[in-house]
Design brief:
The complex is a heterodimer of chains A (about 150) and B (about 170).
Chain A (H helix, E strand, L loop, with lengths): L5 H17 L17 E2 L9 E5 L3 E4 L2 E7 L2 E3 L3 E2 L4 E2 H16 L11 E5 L5 H13 L4 E8 L1
Parallel strand pairs in A: 1-9, 2-8, 8-9
Antiparallel strand pairs in A: 2-3, 3-4, 4-5, 6-7
Chain B lengths: L14 H17 L5 E7 L21 E7 L3 E8 L3 H7 L1 E4 L7 H14 L5 E6 L5 H12 E5 L4 E4 L3 E4 L4
Parallel strand pairs in B: 1-8, 2-5, 5-8
Antiparallel strand pairs in B: 2-3, 3-4, 6-7
Classes of the chains: A alpha/beta (about 150), B alpha/beta (about 170).
């Protein structure tokens, strides 16, 4: 009994053509967090090396490690210095990174280390402001907001 | 001699083609980019430690302003800082109310373009959202102030206020 391979070849050809068009050789040292939805933007700057800080609707993570919990658009069960606008666990962790960076050449590029910031598009600015101000006080005032290209 | 009514069908050897497909498809699937990611450069305001005695008065930059963009519940509020006289800076100021309950990003982009055409050495916008403003709105406002897409197909852009500083309203 001969197998009819016409339809299978047809399917493979279409999938192959589609995947060839989707092929990207962009170097991305970036893992997108599944728990958040990035906003869309017309920005076209390529992604570069940075410390990954992710703010999802449920967690604040630095390089994949959970630093604080989030509930209903506010930090929950975590110490916040309201006067200095600091999320304390985040501040201490980034301070440690800064110390390590100054001791050892961790950043392979000549440029300053930035914070690669991924946040869910529906989060209020109050939370983003806290994270940004905490990072700036720890020695990282420059950010790269990761967005989806429109 | 038997009469041949039809030519015998030619049987192609599909094995090498299938082999190629089965090798390429998993590789391309792993490299496929189903969405493209990009970044927007931003910073927080830097704290100044106090200026040194400048000696000579610094040269006034009359073609440069710093645009302030407040994002509130009712819409956008524009204002400016610079070396220009206060009457001139007050002409830049204005509001862009929401249109049918939604932020009017197109009008914001038009206003930013007009301001940048007049003060073409400007490159900094200070974004001041209220605490309840969503991150999505802030990103779209940055897009409107940062650049204008002239041709989507050729991806040509006109750069407006490319340095974004995010701060909070005190």
């Amino acid at each position: 009994m001969d197998l009819n391979l016409t339809s299978m070849m047809d399917m493979f050809t279409i999938i192959l053509v589609f995947l060839i068009f989707s092929f990207s050789s962009q170097d991305q040292n970036l893992k997108l967090d599944q728990d958040l939805t990035l906003p869309e933007s017309t920005a076209a700057i390529e992604f570069k090396w940075a410390i990954n800080v992710n703010l999802t609707p449920t967690e604040l993570k630095v390089e994949g490690n959970t630093v604080a919990k989030v509930k209903s658009g506010k930090f929950a069960g975590v110490k916040i210095d309201k006067d200095k606008k600091r999320v304390l666990p985040l501040f201490h962790l980034l301070k440690k990174f800064k110390e390590i960076e100054s001791r050892e050449k961790v950043n392979p590029t000549e440029s300053e280390t930035v914070i690669s910031f991924q946040a869910d598009k529906d989060l209020p600015f109050e939370m983003i402001d806290l994270v940004m101000k905490t990072s700036a006080q720890a020695g990282y005032p420059n950010f790269r907001f990761v967005v989806l290209k429109k | 001699m038997p009469k041949r009514n039809e030519e015998d069908p030619v049987h192609l050897n599909m094995v090498p083609v299938m082999n190629l497909f089965l090798a390429m498809i998993p590789f391309l699937l792993m490299c496929a980019a189903f969405f493209q990611v990009s970044v927007i450069n931003a910073s927080v305001p830097a704290l100044s430690e106090g200026g040194e005695d400048p000696g000579d008065e610094p040269k006034k930059e009359l073609k440069k302003i710093t645009l302030n963009l407040q994002i509130g519940k009712t819409g956008f509020v524009l204002s400016a800082q610079g070396d220009q006289p206060p009457e001139e800076l007050s002409r830049i100021a204005g509001t862009i109310p929401k249109k049918q309950g939604k932020y009017d990003f197109e009008k914001l982009a038009e206003r930013c373009k007009k301001i940048h055409d007049r003060y073409n050495k400007s490159d900094t916008v200070v974004i001041l959202p209220e605490k309840d403003v969503l991150y999505d709105v802030i990103v779209h406002a940055m897009d409107a102030a940062r650049e204008r897409i002239l041709d989507k197909r050729l991806d040509t852009r006109e750069h407006l206020f490319t340095n974004a500083v995010v701060s909070s309203i005190l």
